[in-house]
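Dear support,

I submitted the protein below through the web form. The confirmation email said the job was done, but the results page showed an empty box. After a refresh the structure appeared. I'm attaching both so you can tell me whether what I see now is the final result or a partial one.
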Amino acid sequence: MDAGGNTRKTWGIGADEGDSLLTSEREIQNYLLCHPVVARLLWNRGLRSAQQLDRFLKPELSQLPDPFSIIDMEKAVSRVAEAIVHDTHREERIAVYGDYDVDGTCGSSLLVDFFKSIGVEVVPYQPNRFSEGYGVHVAAVEKLAAEGAKIIITVDCGITAVAPAKRARELGVDLIVIDHHKVGAELPDALAVVDPQRSEDSSGLLNVCGAGLAFFFAAALRAKLRELGFFEGKQEPNLVRLLDLVAVATIADVVDVRGVNRILVTHGLRLMARQPRAGIKALLEAAKIEKPTSMHMGFVLGPRINAAGRLKSARAAFDLLTSDDLESARKMAAELEKINTERRATQDDVQLQARAQAEQQLADPKWKELAARIPAAQFGPWPRALVLAPPAGAANWHEGVVGIVASKIAEEFGRPAFILAEKEGAADSLKGSVRSFAKIDILAAISAASVCSHLTNFGGHAHAGGVALKREGLAAFTEALNAHMAVTLGAESYHRERRFDAEVSLDEIDAKLVEELEKLGPFGHQFPEPVLKLSNVSCSGVKVMKEKHLKLRYERLEAVWFNAVRCERLENGAKADVWVNAGWNEWQGVKRLQLSVRHVEVR
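What the results page shows now:
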C-alpha cells in the first residue's frame, strides 16, 4: 500500500517448482526486452520466472490438460460413443439441454455443432427464463423422454438436478451433467456428473466455464470415437473451430482468465479474427467490430447473446450461433440487435426508477430511528443495503434486467443492492437479484436466521444472488437485513481499495507501452486490463459528452471518462490522482493514444 492508502495490485500467481526465478523487475525487462512499465506490471502480477513468462506470453493448445482427467468424463463419453458407433442414436435420441445465459447458450451451441460435424442429429433444449426458470426441470425431462430422448446432456446446469435425475432414471433416460457450479447437499443420481467442483475431481479445472467443459467433452468424445474406429475412412472434426464460442462464454461468464482459460480464449480470439463462424461474424458486423478483443466478448457480444434469454427466448441466440448461412445469420443478428436495444431501453427505465427510489431511501429518517434501537450497531452508512421494488399497483419491473440494474445501483451508491420484480401472475410475490459491493459477503447476510426467515427462497454466492419473498414482508425483510448488517459490518467493509498495477508519469505512456500492454491480453476476471496510476496531474479541456461522459486532456494525452455523471466534477487545471487504462482511439483511419479514466481523486 502506498502513502496515500492506495493498493498496488499483487497477484497470487506462484512459480512452479524448478522454474528459473527472476529476482527483479529489471531482470524481467532484460529477459523480455520489454518496456519497464510492462516489466513492473508482470512483476506485480506475480509472473516472476522465465518459464511462467514463456507459458503466459505463448499459450499453446498443446498445454491443455487431458480431458479424461475430469471426473466421470470416461463414463460420459463412453455412453455417447456407444450410441453413435452402434448407430443406436437414431432410436436413442440424444438431447442437449443448455442454460439460457451466454455460457449455456454457447456451450449447447458448441455441442450441437460438434455432433453435427460427425453426422449426429441431436435435440436442443433451453428452458424459458420466465415460464420455467433456471436449471433442469422434471417436466422438461419428461417432455424430452416422450420425444424419444434416451440420453440428455446438460450444459452449464444440472448439478442440483436431484429430482430431474431421479425422474430420468425412472424413464430409462441416461442423464449426463456437464456443469461448473458448486455441488449442493446431494449429488444428482445421473449416469455421469462431469463437474470439476466435485471433491473427488483432480483435474484442477475449477475455473473452466460450462462451454469450456463442453469443449473438453467434445475432445474426449472425439478421442473415444477414434479409439473405437469411428473415423476410419472419415475426416476427424477440427475442434479449434469451436473455440470462438468458448472464448465468448469464458469472458462473459466472468471466470478466471488465467491458466487453461487463457489458452482457450487466446485461440478463440485468433479464430474470431481469422475465420469466425457465421453467427459470430454476423454479430461482429452488426456491432461494427473489425478487431475483436476480450473486451468485446464481455461488453458487446455477451450482452447481445444474453438479451434473447433476458427478454424473450434464448433460442434466438442459439439459432444464430449454430447457423451455417451468413445471410441468414445476418438477419438473425439484426433481430438480436433489436432485442438488445429493447433490453437497454428496458434496463435504463428500470434503473432510472430504481435510482430515484434509492435516493428516497437514503434520505428516509427511519434509518436514524432504526440505528437508535440497535445499541450494537457499528459506525457505517445507512441504509447498509438498498432493497428496491416497484410500488404495489405500479408498472412492474422487467425480471430479465434486474440483475444488471442491481450491479449498476450497487456500484453507483456504494452498497449492496436488491432489485425485485413482481412474479408474473402473482403481484403479492416478489423475486429478484442482489449484487454486493466491495468485500461484503451478501449471501452471509441474507443467510442469517433473522433475515432469511422473511424470504421464501434465496441462493447465490458472496457477491451475487437471488431472493424471493411475499410483498407484505418487504418492509420487515429490509429492516431485518439492515439491522443485521449494522451489527456485523462497519464502515471499513464499504471501502473499496482503488488498485493499480504501476504508478507512472505521463511521459512513460507512449505508443510502445500501449502496444506491449495489448500483447498481455486477453484480459478478464482475475487478470483485468492494466490500471496505471497518475499522481498529482492536472487536466484541461474538460467537456461533457452526451450528458454523462467527460472528454479531457492530460498534457499531450487525450482522455475519456465514461459514465462520470455522478462523479466528482472536474475543473480545468484541477490537480488529481487518476487511475487509467491506456489504449488507442481509432476513428476514420486515424489511430491516437487515448486514456480511459477509471477513477479520480481531486487533491
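Response: this is the final, complete result; the empty box was a page-load delay. The chain has three domains: 7-58+498-602, 67-236, 364-494.
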